[in-house]
Design brief:
- It is a single chain.
- The chain has helices spanning 14-24, 56-62, 77-87, 102-110, 117-120, 131-142, 165-171, 174-186, 277-289, 300-310; strands spanning 5-10, 29-35, 51-53, 67-70, 91-95, 121-124, 151-157, 191-201, 206-215, 218-227, 234-241, 246-251, 256-261, 264-269.
- The protein is an alpha/beta fold and 322 residues long.
- It has 2 domains: 5-124, NAD(P)-binding Rossmann-like Domain (Rossmann fold); 127-274, Dihydrodipicolinate Reductase, domain 2 (2-Layer Sandwich).
- The strands form 2 sheets. It has an 8-stranded mixed β-sheet with strand order 8-9-10-7-11-12-13-14, covered by helices on one side. It has a 6-stranded parallel β-sheet with strand order 3-2-1-4-5-6, sandwiched between helices.
- α1 packs across α9 and α8 packs across α10 (300-310).
- The protein is globular and about 60 Å long.
- The chain binds nicotinamide-adenine-dinucleotide (NAD).
- Nicotinamide-adenine-dinucleotide is lined by residues 10-16, 35-38, 56, 71-74, 76, 95-96, 126, 170-171, 177.
């Protein structure tokens, strides 16, 4: 990318606000246009309003962006990413999950050859950039004597029951939304190999899944719980190192963590409390994306692997039962 990075933002809903906040901190970024068919007043960027369009096709008739950011409902990602790939030369940052089904992944893959899909498509696996995740990954790298990660338990709760059907329209299901965050976060610690169990219940508002992984020559199971049936957000993950009796607990909501060996505290992590959680995820994500070598967790290949593991689940009838 050149000295000035011209950005087009597609979908100006909830998460777009975080993208705009982080992009506004980077002096070499200019947001040239926004796209959203349902927006009457487009948001300002550094005090001025970028050109606004009702469709990405119309925007690409007028602009040559270096980066297109897609922050629209999950089931629109594949079509919009395809349009951006075919009608521009921009890198494309797609919100997670990259696609909503395996057929869409196959369609994106089939473009490779005509356009550089693997070189241009990145997925915003933002949870993998959260500071407590970084902290835990560094501790694990520093301590090979802890041995392999022998068990993982992760529970992600979001209060989307309060949003009713709109939650399903934007995020499809709890597993579609949180499962991808859990799997992409785990790629920082272990190598995921397969989904070994999947139960979705409550019309897709809850899930209980298990995934097999490899860690330092051993094979383990990650237990993944997610649910929208709650009044508040709460997300935690524990990593057990059974050979050394070490455990790491990370609290993704509080952005804190600690490592303990039986009754002894080995290390702990906290923040100064000044940076909002999503900004703390997207700042390092953009730093990585805009560098010469974007991190592997953003890559098309990682997103494809996660998609394949993630979609080894039976379909559920969607909607919270009334
Ligand atoms: N909300 C979060 O905290 C969060 C965090 C990370 C990732 N995400 C992901 O980001 C995506 C969007 O989530 P959200 O919470 O911002 O949803 P949202 O419903 O708040 O916003 C989506 C926006 O996209 C617009 N839109 C719909 N179709 C469009 C189209 N064809 N072209 C342009 N704009 C279109 C809608 O009008 C809406 O303004 C989802 O895939 C979600 O998984 C959300």
């Amino acid at each position: 990318m050149g000295d000035l990075v011209r950005v087009g933002l597609v979908g100006v809903g909830t998460i777009a606000q975080t993208h705009l906040t982080v992009l506004a901190e980077l002096p070499w970024i200019s947001v040239d246009f926004t796209v959203d068919p349902h927006l009457v007043v487009p948001p300002p960027f550094r005090g001025t309003a970028p050109r606004h369009y009702a469709s990405l096709a119309n925007a690409l008739d007028e602009h040559q962006p270096d980066l297109v950011v897609i922050a629209t409902p999950t089931d629109t990602h594949a079509d919009l990413a395809t349009l951006a790939l075919v009608r521009s030369t921009a890198r494309v940052l797609v919100e997670k999950p990259l696609v909503h089904d395996l057929a869409s992944l196959a369609r994106l893959r089939s473009l490779d050859g005509d356009v550089d899909v693997r070189g241009r498509v990145f997925t915003a696996h933002h949870f993998a950039f959260s500071p407590e995740v970084d902290w835990a990954a560094e501790r694990i790298a520093e301590h090979p004597e802890w041995g392999p990660v022998t068990a993982v338990t992760s529970a992600f709760y979001d209060p989307y029951v309060l949003r009713g059907d709109q939650a399903f329209a934007s995020y499809t299901s709890s597993w579609m939304d949180s499962g991808v965050n859990q799997l992409s976060m785990l790629t920082r610690f272990v190598t995921l190999t397969a989904l070994t169990g999947a139960e979705q219940a409550d019309g897709g508002a809850t899930a209980w899944c298990t995934a097999e992984y490899r860690s330092r020559g051993a094979v383990g199971t990650a237990r993944l719980r997610s649910s929208w049936l709650t009044g508040s957000s709460s997300k935690e993950t524990t990593l057990s190192f059974g050979h050394s009796d070490v455990e790491i607990w990370i609290d993704h909501t509080a952005m804190t963590g600690f490592a303990a060996q039986e009754s002894r505290l080995l290390a702990s992590y906290g923040t100064d409390g000044l940076t909002p959680r999503k900004v703390a995820h997207y700042r390092p994500l953009y730093e990585s994306l805009l560098s010469d070598r974007p991190g592997p967790v953003l890559s098309f290949d990682t997103a494809a692997t996660i998609t394949e593991i993630h979609h080894a689940t039976p379909d559920v009838e969607r909607g919270i039962p009334r």
